[in-house]
């Protein structure tokens, strides 16, 4: 069987229509017909080989919503059915038997989890993943907007689980873009007090409408100083280097500064910023199948939906340039039209 896709043939080049011959379906794998696929900055990083690990032809795309079209023999008794709506995020496979996998931390598989992109991703008419990573979509969840929850959403949801965030927590979010706006919506649904740090004052009302309780101009040093000692968690979603010291100072005792943004320059933090107040700097990647299921259930129950723009997949290069130029109205989703 041949599968149509859009692939990068070399680093940084426009994607081209590309057909590949699919191997027989592995026993524990599930094949999914793609309906929607979100566009993430990490897709651009892989297409451009910014991280030095890309192999070409490369089929990116890892925020997939689709329908089960085939089940491997060992995947037929795992609760998935033909035609069922499902999602696939950053990870497609893990070994299932190492200590991390057995403990429900499959994303940190000690034998190496396999990214969806490395397994042939969602910029295609079909893709495949191990049954564990094929996440059932709650019936009430809107399939057209759900894709970004599977990468952007889980990336900001996992730190809230790690740091035991509750309705009594005070949380700051740095960067109100594709990741940060989802973080605000999730935190609002959880009942936490949310402060958004934004460099765009003109976004204030729209950020408040998302569920933020306060919006602070991140370019105003005096405004940052007034927040000293307040936050249980500050979640940074930005991938650029900033003056981090005011944010460390804004942490409450035992507070955590947590980054999910891929800042390439090392963080500069004085030891006393951490020692005084028992504070910590932490980070995380995406989440486990169990965490993904929990997020989709919460999104369904609390009506959490990313703000998205749509492009037909046939206009994928336009969509990628839209994201690359920073013009995306938070998230971009491709609608399959093969």
Automatic annotation (TrEMBL):
Q: Which domain of life is it from?
A: Bacteria
| Gene Ontology molecular function | alcohol dehydrogenase (NADP+) activity; zinc ion binding
| SUPFAM superfamilies, alphabetized | GroES-like (SSF50129), NAD(P)-binding Rossmann-fold domains (SSF51735)
Named cofactor requirement(s):
Zn(2+)
Q: Where is the Enoyl reductase (ER) domain?
A: 12-334
Q: Which UniProt keywords apply?
A: Metal-binding, NADP, Oxidoreductase, Zinc
Question: What's one Pfam family here?
Answer: ADH_zinc_N
| Record EC number | 1.1.1.2
To which protein family does this belong?
A: Belongs to the zinc-containing alcohol dehydrogenase family.
Write the protein's name.
alcohol dehydrogenase (NADP(+))
Species of the source: Mixta intestinalis
Organism lineage reads as:
Bacteria, Pseudomonadati, Pseudomonadota, Gammaproteobacteria, Enterobacterales
